[in-house]
Amino acid sequence: MFEDLLHMCQHVGNENDLIRMKAGLADAYFELGKLDEAEKLEREVLGFRRQNLGEANPETITAMQTLSITLQRKGAWSDALLMQSTTVLKILKARFGTDNLETARAMSQVAFTLKLTGEKKQAEDLYKLVLETKRRHLPRKHPDLIMAVKNYANAAQDQGWTKEAEVMLRQALEDCVLVLGEKHPDTIMARNDLGCTSLIGGELDVAVQLLRTSLEQNEEVWGHKHNNTIVVRTNLAQALHRQGKKAEAARLQRKAWEDCRSVFGDKHYFTIQLAEGLTILEAVDFTVEKKEKGV
């Protein structure tokens, strides 16, 4: 189907329409985990917009942000960070200043990439700036502000502020349900985030309940092989492992690894992480099984 659409793109007479079609096709590839295909098209879109609109044009900036997210998902974090911080954020700060919503959105992307690279304190500092900016400019129940609260809470959790993070994440989840609805993707992942924080805080039953619900909803909305579904499945596996349900934990982790491998390939950083987790969980499950059998 996508090959047919790509073939159709080549016969579009208007170059602007062609680029818009390629951008849409790249988005579809990204959602399916076809990151190489998405990156190729996104680079074409960015090249066209740079050449015809200039580096600082809003459409060019959007194209850079889109490409940086794909690079981020592929694990090319240094390339993503370079594009996000030294190009996009620099342009937006020069145009709008720091206290601006567009700048804040770009800062949030930089913060997420920093978090992936292990620079968690820098990520927390940026997320805090983003949250403060959005609080000044947006009403309390605005979806962008809710996400800023959630992101900062997760960053605070990374710094050990578990109780504070739990309070913020619980409020973010309640606001998501109220504003966006129970089955909205942001609501579903807010439930996952609260479940993870509950797990770290030792509330195992609460964590498992939240993560099970998040997994079921992700499967319903996105399907079994979407990145969000895989993430929540492995989080639930960790919670069940802590709860003592070793066999179910190992089964879920294996499913997460198999789906990740199918979508992203053997060499993707997430596939490797899941394989390492699976080795640990299956080793524990095997040891428990041997003890139960008296071997």
Short description:
With 295 residues, this protein is an all-alpha fold.
Your description of this structure?
Helix 8 packs antiparallel against helix 9 and helix 11 packs antiparallel against helix 12. The C terminus is likely disordered. This protein is mainly alpha-helical. Among the domains are: 74 residues; 59 residues, no CATH class. The longest helix has 25 residues. InterPro entries: NLR-like, TPR-like_helical_dom_sf, TPR_rpt. Pfam families: TPR_10 (PF13374), TPR_12 (PF13424). This is Nephrocystin-3.
What brief labels describe this structure?
295 residues; mainly alpha; 14 helices; globular; disordered C terminus; Nephrocystin-3
Distance between the termini: 53 Å
Please state the structural category: mainly alpha
- What global shape is seen? globular
Instruction: Please bin the fraction of helical residues.
Output: over 70%
Contiguous helical run count: 14
Largest sheet: none
Strand content: under 5%
Rg calc: 21 Å
Order of helices and strands: HHHHHHHHHHHHHH
Strands, total number: 0
State the low-pLDDT regions, or none. Answer: 286-295
Task: Let me know the average pLDDT.
Answer: 91
Organism: Colletotrichum liriopes
InterPro entries: NLR-like (IPR053137), TPR-like_helical_dom_sf (IPR011990), TPR_rpt (IPR019734)
Protein name: Nephrocystin-3
Pfam family, one: TPR_10
